[in-house]
Amino acid sequence: MEGEVKRDRWGYEVNTSSDACISAINSYYLQVLGYGRERSVILEAPAHDPNCVLANILAANFLCSSNPSLAPSYLHAANTRLQQATGYERAVFDALNCLISHDRDIDVAVELFSKVLKNFPRDLVSLKMAQVLCFYMARPDLSLDLVEQVLPKNEHENYIYGMLSFALLEVGRMEDAEKAAKKGLEICNEDSWAQHGLCHVLQYECRFKEAVEFMEECSRSWGSLSSFMFTHNWWHVALCYLEGNSPMRKVLEVYDHCIWKELERSDATSAEVYLNAVGLLLRVYIRGEIDIFGDRLKILAGCLTDQAFWYLEWHLDVLIVWALASTGAFDKGEDLLKGLKDRIFKMSKKKQQRMQRGMLLAEALYQYGKGNNKEALDLLGPDFDANHCKIIGASDEQLDVFNEVWYVLLLNTGQAAKAIEVIKMRVEKREGVPFMWRLLERGYSMLGRPEATTVGEKAKYLETAYFN
Fold first, then answer.
1. In which domain of life is the source organism classified (predicted)?
2. What is 104-117 written as a DSSP string?
């Protein structure tokens, strides 16, 4: 190894003589962990030191999603100087090189990040990247293991507690998730991921008004967040209003002024906005309130006919299929479905097996959008559980809308007894959502059962319990 060695934010050695290079790397770390919108700062690092392996591989990873055509040159620069890299740089290079390779194996990438964390446990950016991979693998248990492995070395860092909170809530440990989020906020009350984790818990526990008040207070610190995190936090606020049965105008206000308005920013990432926008409108649609939103769904669907937004995220693709079908853009919806099938066909057998449920969900959402309830229900099957579709890259809260679709399809096709069975299990877990009680009331009414009256009274009580 030649040249001067400096230390990054974590205290690990990086082969560079440039203070400006290290400063840019450290700034990038904070942008990643804080969901900032200035992640392009990493491009300054190799500009200050073209020979720095860590600077180049981090830049290549960033460009893979933002400007893929530029990534290979940075990857090549990192690879050619690998012999001069520190042990830390080589470990990060191996993990990121696997992650950005054309035929990447997510399992191998996670193993490589686990190796980084075993030897360099203070590298919270590698932890964040590993957690993202675990998210797409539907392995919250593995995500939690990784956080707990490095927690003792990072107890003073607020970022670790946001990551711990999300892993805990994804495995259903809500009380522990709340404690972890609050611990992170004690260290830094503007930590957006800890704020997000606490909101998840409050929302799951049907503490809707508390969640809204908390997040709206936090929103003053969101101006520097990425388009995804900014609109996703507001998506949570809108969903709390929606599930808590606030006046629909409140949901509409959040959509217009806090989600859609993000597109007016010159540095907005449109796809990230569309993901949260269409996810919210599907919830509104299921509840029969979409007319209040006027032409907004049609306007959004018009944007989503642009194929530049296809195949970025499976979760977004599934929602796009529904939006296109529900607004009559059937040809476009069929094109997207065909493209998804082609992409699966080109995957390895292991990846094909993983994505089958995601493909069935996309086909079902297409039929649901067209109004073909029976066909949609047949695709979802008699024992559907949206949590089995985590492979599309969605949290439990994001997936829950697909369970709602299934409940409505059961009722729309006359399968009231089955609907009652599964909705009762749902309200046992989250009994404070009035919409679920209204669906249960509908099921009992369809069968002429007296429980409809009691259930209807419960729904009526909850409808005024939070915001009225």
1. Eukaryota
2. --HHHHHHHHHHHH
Helix (H) / strand (E) containing 15: strand 13-15
- Backbone torsions φ then ψ of 431, nearest 5 degrees: -85, -5
Q: CB–CB of 384/426 below 8 Å?
A: no
d(CA 466, CA 246): 7
Using a cut of 0.85, tell me whether the model's pTM lies above it: yes
SS3 453: helix
Residues 279 and 305: beta-carbon distance below 8 Å: no
CB 122 within 8 A of CB 11: yes
Question: Residue 294 corresponds to which tokens in the numbers above?
Answer: 């006027």
* pLDDT band per the 50, 70, 90 thresholds, residue 2: low
Q: Pairing relation of β-strands 13-15 and 5-7?
A: antiparallel
Environment class of residue 42 by beta-carbon count within 10 Å: exposed (0-12), middle (13-18) or buried (19+)?
Answer: buried
Total Cβ atoms within 10 A of residue 25 = 28
199 token code pair: 């909101």
d(CA 144, CA 134): 9
